[in-house]
User: Fold this.
Amino acid sequence: MTNELTLYLIIGAILFSLGVFGIITRKNAIMVLMSMELILNSANINFIAFAKYGGMNLEGHIAAMFVIILAAAEVAVALAIVLNIYHNFRHVNIDEISKMKE
Amino acid sequence: MSGTFNILGVGILTWITFLPILGMIAILAIPSGKDEISRARSLNYFRYITLGITFIQLILTLVVYSGFNFSMPGINDASSMQFIERVTWISVTGLPMLGDLKIEYFLGIDGISMPMLLLTAIVSTLAVFASWGIKKAAKGYFAMYLLLVTGMMGVFVALDFFLFYVFWELMLLPMYFLIGIWGGPRKEYAAIKFFLYTLFGSVFMLLVMIALYFAVGSFNMFDMMDPSKFDQNSILAGFGTSWRYIAFAALFVGFAIKVPIVPFHTWLPDAHVEAPTAISVILAGVLLKMGTYGMIRIAWPMFPDAVQYFNWWIGLIGMVSIVYGALCALAQFSVGKRDLKKMIAYSSVSHMGYVMLGLAALNTEGVIGAIFQMFNHGTITAMLFMIVGVIYDRAHTRSLDDFGGMANKMPVYTAIMTIAFFAAIGLPGLSGFVSEALVFLGAFKTYPVLTVISGLGIILGAGYMLWALQKVFFGKLPERWSGPWDPTGKIYKNDDINYIELGGLVPLAIVVIYLGINPNPVIGMMTSSVNHFVELIRIGGNFAGM
Amino acid sequence: MNWYNIVFYLFALIVLVSAAGVVFSRKMMYAAFSLLFTFFGVAGLYVLLNADFIAVTQIMVYIGGILILIIFGVMLTSKFTDLEIKSGTTGTVQYVLAGISTIIVAAALIIMYLNVDWVQNPVPELESTVKPIGILLMTKYFLAFQVAAILLLLAFIGAAKIARRK
Amino acid sequence: MSHDLLLKISVVILFLPLLSFLIIVFNQKRLGKAAGIIGTSILGIDLVLAAIVAFNKFVVYPNEAIIQWKFHWFSLGNRTIDLGLGVDNLAAMMLIVVTLISFLVHLFSTEYMSEDKRFPRFFSYLGIFTFSMLGIVLANNLLNMYIFWELVGLSSYLLIGFWYEKDSASNASKKAFITNRVGDLGFFAGIMIAFFTFNTFMFDEIFSQIRSGVLPFESGTILTAMGILLFAGAIGKSAQFPLHVWLPDAMEGPTPVSALIHAATMVAAGVYLTAKIFPVFTADALTFVAYTGAFTAFMAATIGITQNDFKRVLAYSTVSQLGFMVMSLGVGAYTYGFFHLVTHAWFKACLFLASGSVIHAMHHAMHKLHDHHSDPQDIRNMGGLRKTMPKTYLTFLFATIAISGVPLTSGFLSKDGILAGTLAFGNLSGHWLIPAMAFISAGMTAFYMFRLTIVSFFGDFKTEIASKTHENNTQIVLPLVVLAILSLWVFYSFNPIDASSGWFAKAFKPVETVVPAEYQFDFMMPYHDAHATESTEVSHGSHSYLNKFEEELHHQHYTAMFLSLAIAGFGILLSFIFYYYKKVDPDKVANSIKPLYLLSYNKWYIDEIYQKTFIGGTILLTKLMFWIDTYIIDGAVNGVAFIWRIFGTFVGKFDNGVVDGLVNLSGGVVGFSGSIVRKLQTGRVQTYLLLSIIGVILLLWWLF
Assistant:
């Protein structure tokens, strides 16, 4: 079988593809958000994997940490927006939100 | 004092010329505003920026004036030009056909540009007051306005023919938009007519410029004026050749369209009638002068032989313009829409005829009279157009039939208009008289008959001006104007002229009266240049054995 | 097949299955809970990769923070009484196309990973990564750290502002 | 008093009225009625100063030709344009005339204009007029003269059009200005010839250059032309035929204005100019001037006989008297021409102010009767005013006697001299038409002036209005009295029948001509031509004459006096027969010579002729020019544009059909594919993401 690094990378790739699929197919904004979290996690797996096997060491950890920070910020803002949209439209289906006014 | 004045390491003439561009950038950077309040606020910013910039320009021009040496002739002598700024602008070597192409950024002034510089600064500052009422797309308007000012200033300070041409064309574009967007009902027609006419003239100028370039090998105006710099094999070398006459005629037509002289004048009434007030002011006050300035700066010193050859015809054209323009102005009372503005536009044709006549005199009195007439026509006609603007803004008509009896409704306005109209007639004590008298005294020495016939213009001028004065102010007030102009009192609190309009008119009136009593400040700065100019043309022309 | 491998495959399975659950489940609450498992599995993988600090961070931030937020979001934007909190999809054509293309992407990535001869440069094992990461954050990445802090602050202020009703 | 001080005072005299104008014009609302007091008192000071200057000139420097001051106005580099002012005897006398009449008119107007709503403005205009007029008086060069000449035109324009609500007033003011402009064009052409030839505007320099033989274009004909062209300014300003038409219309202005401008001062400016440039007139020019004056005098007198408007009669009488003055200068009777100017100024101002007094009274009476339709100026509405307005009547009567040339008045002295001059001229040159016209005009003057007096003041009240009039107050009457007294003979010569022994004739001795002998009448050439300076010393005796003309004039004196007395007496008698005793019905006489009557009544149809020819012609010409402008020049421009448009359309067709066809084909393909692609443009992020993924896949596929 192949080495361990490749295994981790494959897990990341599959996670990534699932995330992309989710983003494309889901109507609900919160679902889109969740899918995005998957993508971010796939990226983090890669970072940590390269940290151990690719010689990035702690630099990879730091990068992953920043990704987590950003994800937190992103989710906070995104959910606030979603809530706002919900107040205005009474639903959060993105394909029906065509007017960005107000 | 021939040294250059520098501010922040940049010459003062450059500052004067390009300051409006800075203002334009500032205006473009300010948002127009979305709601009523913010729009009104930005409109005020636009106005005050434009006013501020032109005012600083005026101050700088006065600084230049204070440092100006009255005794340096200039004209064809680069060493006695003042405030020179000279750097290489475009330099390409080893071109096929052309060889080395070198275009300089070459600025400088002499006694002929100085009055024009002053005039431009004064008129463009005061015309801002006439722009105060512009509401539609104000951002674009004021930006274009400042661009126009740069173009005009540039024309008067450029000493490189190519640079001159660039400024000349630069001023076309904003003018086109200013007439075409902010104009009256037939603005598109007028704007296109103006544009095509002027472009037509520019083509001639461009051709001659290129021909001169091939003959001289540089775009430097002084080289073009120096017969020894001409390549002996070029078609323009030597004196008194038919190629030179053709080149002069083409150049003359190019400038004449701008003046305008009969029969190239028909763009002027249309452009004036359609243009907004401030643009009419600029058009009559400064733009028309560029034509005659070009003649004095370029056409005359470069082709003195041709000037002598064609001189009688130039005088004739001047005479025809005077009489013909006056007759057409007078015709506004018997035919057409009796448009006051059109009448004044034709009066401009007539008054610019005096400039041509003075130039044709080719003596000190005549040429000084011509240049002084350029200055005076600039101030007086600016006043006239502002005056028409004032009444048009209120009554929304310019037809002389609609008015009458305004003297009781608007006494201050009447007083100002009387001053302006009598200045246009050439009443002594006002500046127009001095220049017209000098033109006549000079021209009489050269062409007595033409001059005496031109004198008819004085009578006709009195005719149409007094007729207009009577129609607007005297007699009975028509029923429709018996109430206040603006019953709500929002725009016009009083019936009489307001302070902003006075802000534009009173300084001009002061200039007109002051120069009528003491013309020295303007005449003084041009005397040595003009004497040199006359000598140059007379000797240069005789060189060809004329 | 050693202990390490068994644990690894277990976590990998948890991650993949729960991720598929996130993406494919029709009910949003299920999706949210699947996401919990995904995060947990990823945290496990981090531990296997000797990234103890990140693993803890993953659990605390993702599970303790983000996931809670998402669940709140789900519940606030749905009618509470409605048990069937479903999320529709964007259309069949798109669904199929998305499926095909993501599979291709995944396949391509996997084939690529398998064919690449990775430069292996294993690092020395560390007792704990917490201290060195702390030193790095206070020295080399100090600026980035501060910026991230400010960013977070701003994001939360912004979120509060946006979420508040006008 | 030194020259310097004298000139400084002259400058002050010149600018005081301008000060009055500036003070009043900027404070119209604030000053109100005070404007009248300010204006009048400033003019009073001016009058005192003028008297001082004149006294000094006549007593201290009687033999200096001119005390003058020149300065550079501006420089043209190699030449300067000079201005200046000077006081000679003419100017000194004119200073008195202008300031005194202006002062009296100011005083008169404080009452006359008191009900006008633009009262302050009226006084400011009077101020600027006086300033301009004094400028003409003090000019010692042509350019100064021209500048103030035009300013006088402006102030006249403003004052005639003072009641601009009336169309007739604003038309009259315009007509006055433009008619004057025609004359001014000639004047300016003359100035141009002078400047071209002599390179100066100064009178004394021009004279000395001509004396030394410098002629324009080396031609006596051009010198004649120059003289006539300069005189054209006088034709306009002094209302000589053919430019006299503006003066009667100018009566639309307020009556004090008529008295000041259109009787005493401004219209005299032309005569003053002619007197100033008198030395440059050649024989031909003099003849031209003489005929112009004689014809004007004659024509205006014939018109004056039949007019019914009080002020119009006076206006035509003014034109006629101005004709006398001009004729007098033309025939060479320089002294008497100027003398008549001065005497005429007094009595004509008196007549006009008296007419103002009458009109004022009529106006008030009409106001009392609530009559707004009658014409207060029509003499047919008057009659019997002698009873209600005795002071006005007496002064008016005295001025009428003076203008008719009855002995013991100033008018007799001056007119007598003029008539003697015409006789002398006729005798010496053979132009007998001039004295003939002069004597007939003199007779007619007496006739119509007495007609005016009798119809308006004698007899019974013709209307109720006339009976309700009453005498005006002191501000109006005082100027009349002063002016009437000044029309007595004693102020000019103690001998009531011969002015030549009086101080006036001595102060204004004939000036020598500077024209070369070959272009001048030999009788005008000085006797002492060969040795100029010596003979002036010698000529002291009682019978020393400048030239043959002077001698002849002296000889013709008594002939002229008897003739003129006879003819004036005949005119007065005739008017008493017609209008007082009514022995002959004037209407019957008029009917018997209908065509002549109509010719006179309609002012020789000159206005109509001008309307048809000059004005109509100009309007036609303007229409023609504008037609050319619109249809030919602009038509050509638009035509070129049209041709280009057609060409453009053709090119456009080709472009559309062939060139664009290909372009459209490719465009169509793009458009078609675009219509497919645009379906992908859903505006949804998710679709885009999908597409980008597909794109990435395709890219990868292409890469590997």
